[in-house]
Amino acid sequence: MKKKTKKKIKRFILLLVFFAVVFFFSFFFDKNLFNNLKDTVVKEVNSVKEEVKSKVKEIEKYTKGKEEVPLTEADKIELTNDLMVFFLDVGQADSILIKSQDEYMLIDAGNNADGKKLVSYFNSLGITKFKYVFGTHAHEDHIGGLDDVIKNFKIDKFYMPDAPSTTTTYVEVLNALEKKNIKYSIPKIGSKLTFGDSNLEVIYVGDDNREDLNDTSIVLKLTYKNISFLFTGDLTSNVEREIVSKNIKSTVLKVGHHGSKYSSSAVFLNQVDPKYAVISCGKNNEYGHPHSVVVNKLEKLGATVFRTDLLGTVVALSDGDKIEFKYVNTDTDGDSNEKI
Ligand SMILES: [Zn+2]
Description:
This protein is α/β, with parallel strands linked by helices and 340 residues long. The protein has one domain (52-339): 4-Layer Sandwich (Metallo-beta-lactamase, Chain A). It is built from ten helices and 16 strands. Helix 2 packs across helix 4 and helix 4 (146-152) runs parallel beside helix 5. The longest helix is centred in the first third of the chain and has 61 residues, at 3-63. The termini are far apart. The structure holds zinc ion (ZN). Zinc ion binds next to helix 3.
């Protein structure tokens, strides 16, 4: 063979080896890339599947063979009933809007990120004024959006416990109040307020002496004819024990502290004896709320449990004798994108 030909063959082989290496690496990397992509897609599909499954399971609980549970889905809620209590979907937080005849009140306003969304939802309902606004206690998941509410609506009376905090969120609420020239009041235990044709009783409020800020939560009982609601903020079992002797028996219980196991003691739940219980908590929240022990206790008592993480906003509608529930998407959770 000629030297030139040999050289050519050598060059050709080298080129082949080079291409083989390039091909191998590109295939290897592509495969990795492909696998990663596949993993992400499979994970995403599975998580959506799980979510749909749990929602279907939750809704089936109320519809399959349990016709007495009055829950239906709504596209939109109109302010038509005498008494309406909205357990708003604000993720891992609390916000409860109440209408009694032509008056409105608000208990808590979710996290900071929920404030603007709540304001636009209240606007869409045509609300311009609240007779009462309560900040149950100084934690961000309860008073976070209150500054936005204060800035945007007329408020007759604003209540918070005598247990201040040094957080920016708390200071923002105080500043917003000052700008609107509203002084906050400290509710008195046992006092009764009129609200539409309903009665509102202050069952409990804690002060600065409480070690746990959750135990300063304002607890309210709303009664309209034969239907009543107990709103407990984030009260723990420590204080539940102190109020069991009071008139706390209620048709509907807003379950304490997002369904945490440190609230909802058996003695307290027995006394409230709710027919319905609403848990306000975030989808897949980091705290594992609601705790299965709490849900089991409630179901054992015969209460039907509605969860905002599974249903979205839950609305109770009543004429004072009958009660029914609707669930609706209100787009009021400001953190919803971060949680996925
Ligand atoms: Zn809370």
